Amino acid sequence: MSKNDTIIKPEIIEWARKRARLTIEELAKKLHVSADRVRQWEKGETPIGMEKARALAEYAVLPFGLLFAKKIPNIKITIPDCRSIRNKEVRTVSPELYGTISSAEEKQDWYRDYLKEAGEEKLDFVGSITEQTPIQDVVKKLYAVLKCDPDQIRKENSTWEKLFDFLICQVENAGILFMRNGILHNNTRRRLDLEEFRGFVLVDEWAPLIFINGSDYPAAQLFTLIHELVHLLLGKGGITDAEMFSSHSSKTERFCNQAAAEFLVPEKELKEKWNGKLSADENIAALIKYFKVSSLVMISRAEQTGLISSSESVAMRKREIGRFKEIKARLREHGGGNFYATLKYRVSPLFAQTVIAEANSNRILLRDAFRLLGVKNMNKLQEFSRSLGMPS
After folding, report:
1. Residue 373, number of CB atoms within 10 A of its CB
2. C-beta separation of 66 from 11 below 8 A
3. Max alpha carbon distance in the chain (Å)?
4. Is the Cα torsion angle 252, 107, 376, 20 positive or negative in sign?
5. CB neighbours of residue 25 within 10 Å
6. CA-based, 20 to 30 A from 327: which of 37, 50, 100, 106?
7. pLDDT at residue 6 in the model
8. What residues form DSSP beta bridges with 81?
9. pLDDT tens digits, one per residue of 320-361
10. Phi, psi of 201 (to 5 degrees)
């Protein structure tokens, strides 16, 4: 055994490989060794070297030190899990979701320390309501936190895309880190599974954080944003599968859905605007333009308020989801767009600007700035800075 070889139990190697969802042959190809060599590692016949072990830990999204555990580690997330599928609780976490949460927590920890050192005060809206708070009062609180009003939303944002961008800006202006990504870090080969989660919230009185799965239909992300913001007002974080059109066994999830729906499409106003002389499709088309929400949100809200039947809603949603899938497929064919425009939301515009400012002032090491922002060198950092409208 050479000095670079590591003493890692064979069952840990096999566990890490399976956690990475790789066959023996697939791992061998990635590590540039034979399949027989991987089998020897997993049987304890040959020790795995340091370089290969580090690569294995990276594929499995694990801290390298965990490979040296005496028994198979029990990997747990540090935030509550609010997800459900068909009203059954979900407790499995993929390496991609685990890595995404861990990365977000690292950024939140850094930003919290930065704010405390700068003498910033706690945010008083975190945990400011309960599930007994009347929904209308929650909606008023949401407008207060976002520093906007219904007329401003309706008149100043001509489409739901513009409304979404506006609300993201207001969320960050309120001191909330907003992150959105559809892949693990910058790895386009490791997508975040929409079937696993739509978003999560990291509650903190200094540095609250909202993360949205960018793999979701763009139209659905608007609803998830407000849903997660209600979680922050409750002071209850966790992983969510925020869907407006599904029932949840969790009282908290139902409350957040109800508040988000009322914020985006107030029931009283919806019923006033609904034209009984028009078909459901015609009403939906007109009200999408008025409320500046997606077709999926509008269809679901119309069903919830009794304006269309359940069967109509199901048929309309199915049609819209099919259309969104076609749009996403066309977007993928044309590439991923501007890297830096995407990166700013992967790490939060507010967070990125703060880190870059600290790096430019020599208050943090450049290598730490590279790691926190997911860039490789000074040139990339400068390009990212310019894309944010900051001095490079």
Report:
1. 22
2. no
3. 82
4. negative
5. 11
6. 100
7. 63
8. 239
9. 877 777 766 665 555 556 788 889 999 999 999 999 999 999
10. -130, 130
Q: What is the pLDDT of residues 11-30, one digit of tens each?
A: 999 999 999 989 999 999 99
Report the alpha-carbon distance of residue 7 to residue 333 in Å, rounded: 45
302 pLDDT tier (thresholds 50, 70, 90): very high
pLDDT of residue 147: 95
Instruction: Collect all residues with Cβ–Cβ distance below 8 Å to 165 and sequence separation of at least 6.
Output: none
- HEC letters along the chain: CCCCECCCCHHHHHHHHHHCCCCHHHHHHHHCCCHHHHHHHHHCCCCCEHHHHHHHHHHCCCCHHHHHCCCCCCCCCCCCECCEECCEECCCCCHHHHHHHHHHHHHHHHHHHHHHHCCCCCCCCCCCCCCCCCHHHHHHHHHHHHCCCHHHHHHHCCCHHHHHHHHHHHHHHCCCEEEEECEECCEEEEECCCCCCCEEEECCCCCCEEEEECCCCHHHHHHHHHHHHHHHHHCCCEEECCCCCCCCCCHHHHHHHHHHHHHHCCHHHHHHHCCCCCCHHHHHHHHHHHHCCCHHHHHHHHHHCCCCCHHHHHHHHHHHHHHHHHHHHHHHHCCCCCHHHHHHHHHCHHHHHHHHHHHHCCCCCHHHHHHHHCCCCHHHHHHHHHHCCCCC
Task: Please state, in angstroms and rounded to a whole number, the distance separating the CA atoms of residues 41 and 8.
Answer: 9
Strands 187-191 and 183-184: antiparallel
Q: Is the pLDDT of residue 187 over 90?
A: no
Q: What was the pLDDT predicted at 334?
A: 55
Q: Quick one: average pLDDT of 372-384?
A: 94
72: its two tokens = 């198979």
Closest-CA residue to 80 (of 220, 231, 246): 231
Looking at residue 351, its amino acid is: F
Tell me the torsion sign for CA atoms 295, 300, 303, 304: negative
Rg of the chain on CA atoms, in Å: 23
